[in-house]
């Protein structure tokens, strides 16, 4: 039986480079348990594609061949394990499509739509999926600060200022007064050309894993991020720091049947209508008033040993290794 060459891409030159390396190690440990699989592990660093061991450079051709200084490898399938840019922005997916390579995860269009917080919220609105009240800024000017941002802060008392195109709470600021509003907006514009301003909610943070298993879309019951009561919000450091004060639960407690149905319906609708593929983690807020809001979609969620996506999938009674095997060989069979 043929041995399939699987390109495991990680790293990237964005803010989540190191987390991508951790996720790739976890995926490599899972892939190594599959038969007829050979992992070609490549790290993107400083705009180069480097062998994870030798650090020799590679280039991917439009023929799907990964060429190095002294070798060439015909790739059969790719796993773009890159959080943030360029893995969740559609850039890598476009490149892999040009190389005629099947790959794990969402395509270029849906990746780009979901990574941009503004475009995703516009889609949620069009699909009647409840999401946090918001407005967005397209220019970092005094006029936009005074006319839009100040009005939002006055109406909502507290807001989150977010770079439109960033992940893992990078470029995200909790603002409670006008004094810090301008600086937060300026900072967010350093990360993105547009800035989102959202109403700050007192809410529980719930997450579901959405994935294809046995050719059917699976939506797990929601887990919960239990943040420190004295903390501000679920920051990048709180997500990944070894001394994080946050914890997770794979079974969110005390949700009504109606709330569970709404989470499932919103997640299912978003996955189908935004054209997602293979997997996503979909995050929700549950407010003190009992309202459910879809917060965001992560088209390639964290895959570290403590990440919610693989834990939710396994808690849902499915094998993560089997999930990978199904995704890979379903795509390869379609290609053949």
Largest sheet: 7 strands, mixed
CATH superfamily of the largest domain: ATP-grasp fold, B domain
Structural class: alpha+beta
Rg, Cα atoms, Å:
20 Å
Instruction: Report the top-level CATH class of the largest domain.
Output: Alpha Beta
How many beta-strand elements?
17
Domain unit count: 3
Describe the global form.
globular
As a percent range, the share of helical residues equals: 25-40%
Give unreliable regions as ranges.
none
**Average pLDDT across residues?**
93
How many helices in DSSP terms?
A: 10
* Strand order in the largest sheet: 6-5-4-3-2-1-7
Write the CATH fold name of the largest domain: D-amino Acid Aminotransferase, Chain A, domain 1
Order of helices and strands: EHEEEEEEHHHEHEEHEEEEHEHEEHH
| Percentage of residues in DSSP E strands | 25-35%
Spatial separation of the terminal alpha carbons: 14 Å
CATH architecture of the largest domain: 2-Layer Sandwich
